[in-house]
Design goal:
Oligomer: single chain
Strand content: 15-25%
Largest sheet: 5 strands, parallel
Shape: globular
Number of strands: 13
Radius of gyration: 21 Å
Number of domains: 2
Low-confidence stretches: none
Distance between the termini: 22 Å
Strand order of the largest sheet: 2-5-8-1-9
CATH class of the largest domain: Alpha Beta
CATH architecture of the largest domain: 3-Layer(aba) Sandwich
CATH topology of the largest domain: Rossmann fold
CATH superfamily of the largest domain: P-loop containing nucleotide triphosphate hydrolases
Length: about 325
């Protein structure tokens, strides 16, 4: 009885503190046509304190979504164009010599912002990617022998083009694992593209996004997300889904054993739990359900499950494995 009362009270708090979500979506809708699923995933990453990998062909408004989102949230934003000749100092900064004082002083790089758009992240060499890794994982940057904490909130939204491979470097698994979710940005529908075309061709100034959220609202929302209730059976369901990517034969999926080169790490279980709670917050609920898990599982697992050469020869993708796992793992 007490737990039900606590959940009811938490639910009322969530309804009250989630009002900024509607304001954010309204601002984004003035600039972005469609892409509701992508926008919701960006909000989930923000609420769950995670990073996001956006994959899609050029021209699908990935950069516009991130820039407008940062503006609406009243967060500092830096866009970093990754290139093959980029150096770690171009990202994190470097030590500058001052001849007057005869001392070195740090000059901070563009990574010092609340929202970082790492545009075409797979174009940068491994040294640059590893420099970004420390910022993503440790929320700090080391310049010379001094470490500087990054501001809060801090999130990296990286983009990559799935169809272009010349002059690119595959992201190592260690870095892929640091991204909470990998979101596929799809083409717009016919009606959405028609509206995009009409807006772009109109002889009028483009609508500028306005800041409608304060960072304190995000911090209060995060505190509520932490308190969202997840039943033990739902937690076990999450671990079952992740374990099935490593040992599919235990779940009646022996045919996938030779198709999956390696499965998801324990970080996937953590992120799936956090993302499910954030998804419940978007639905204004004080508890997470298996449906929350199912709604976010593809984004959390698709970049953590590596198909084998045999699977690639049969044109099978990680999404195919996740679909089979969802069908075979018992839902509580």
């Amino acid at each position: 009885m007490k737990q039900e009362t606590d959940l009811e009270a938490l639910g009322r708090e969530i309804v009250q503190e989630s009002a900024f979500l509607d304001r954010t979506r309204e601002v984004l809708s003035t600039t972005i046509i469609g892409q509701r699923r992508v926008i919701d995933r960006v909000l989930i990453a923000l609420l769950a304190n995670g990073h996001l990998l956006l994959e899609g062909v050029p021209g699908l408004a990935k950069t516009l979504i991130v820039r407008t989102f940062a503006t609406a949230m009243n967060l500092t934003f830096h866009r970093i164009q990754f290139t093959p000749d980029m150096l770690p100092a171009d990202l994190i900064g470097t030590m500058i010599y001052n001849p007057k004082t005869m001392e070195f002083h740090p000059r901070k790089g563009p990574v010092f912002a609340n929202v970082i758009l790492a545009d075409e992240i797979n174009r940068s060499p491994a040294k640059v990617q590893s420099a970004l890794l420390e910022a993503m994982q440790e929320k700090q940057v080391t310049i010379g022998d001094v470490s500087f904490p990054l501001g809060e909130p801090f999130m990296v939204l990286a983009t990559q083009n799935p169809v272009e491979h010349e002059g690119t470097y595959m992201l190592p698994e260690a870095q892929l694992d640091r991204f909470m979710m990998k979101v596929i940005v799809e083409y717009p529908t016919f009606e959405e593209e028609l509206e995009v075309m009409q807006r772009a061709s109109a002889l009028q100034a483009s609508v500028e996004a306005a800041a409608v959220v304060e960072p304190e609202e995000v911090f209060r929302a995060r505190a509520l997300v932490d308190r969202i209730y997840v039943d033990q059976r739902v937690q076990r369901y999450i671990v079952d889904l992740v374990t099935a990517t490593r040992f599919p034969d235990r779940y009646g999926l022996g045919e996938l054993s030779s198709m999956i080169e390696y499965g998801a790490s324990p970080r996937a279980s953590i992120f799936l739990l956090l993302a499910s709670k954030a998804h419940a917050f978007l639905q204004r609920r004080a508890y997470a359900t298996p449906e929350d898990v199912k709604s976010i599982v593809y984004e959390v697992l698709r970049h953590r499950v590596r198909p084998s050469y045999e699977a690639e020869a049969e044109n099978m993708k990680a999404e195919d494995f996740i679909r089979s796992i969802l069908e075979h793992v018992q839902v509580p």
